[in-house]
Amino acid sequence: MAAVVNTRALFACRRLVSSSRFSGFFSASSKPCGLQALCRNLNITSSCSGEDKVTVHFINRDNEKLTAVGKIGDSLLDVVINNNLDIDGYGACEGTLACSTCHVIFEEHIFKQLDPITDEEMDMLDLAYGLTEQSRLGCQVCLTKKMNGMTVRVPEAVADVRQAVDVGKSS
Q1: What pTM, to 2 d.p., does this model score?
Q2: SS3 labels along 16-71
Q3: Could you tell me which residues come within 8 angstroms of residue 5 by beta carbon, excluding any fewer than 6 positions away?
Q4: Ranges under pLDDT 70 in the chain
């Protein structure tokens, strides 16, 4: 019965987001996983079988390999949050495309399979340290079955304004 309730709640969440009241909340370029992040924040989830899970390996800033499991359709930010991975500062804006702290670098064969990058994501990536040809923001990349077992690298440095020094403040 719980799975039925969760599925109904997910559909209700979709209707809510698509209603005129929230029409300006999501841009036309919003990824489908953005909706799932909203539903997650509202504590609405759908059931997921073992077949719908994807294993992702993260190489963190300390060059440690962290392995996590996510559901198909989850963003990489969702995977980090849901698995409580220790990646300092990752996802500071909680997936709202207001920072580049979830910058990750993909393997070339996986990168070629990703959806095209949006202008909004490209603007945020311009602020990221260690930018490469295979860079994307983890909050904008949703898991697919083809990504099972992939490895993504977190750059050694991060552009996080929360860590910036206030140079105008006298000591």
Answers
A1: 0.69
A2: HHHCHHHCCCCCCCCCHHHHHHHHHHCCCCCCCCHHHEEEEEEECCCCCEEEEEEE
A3: none
A4: 1-51, 158-171
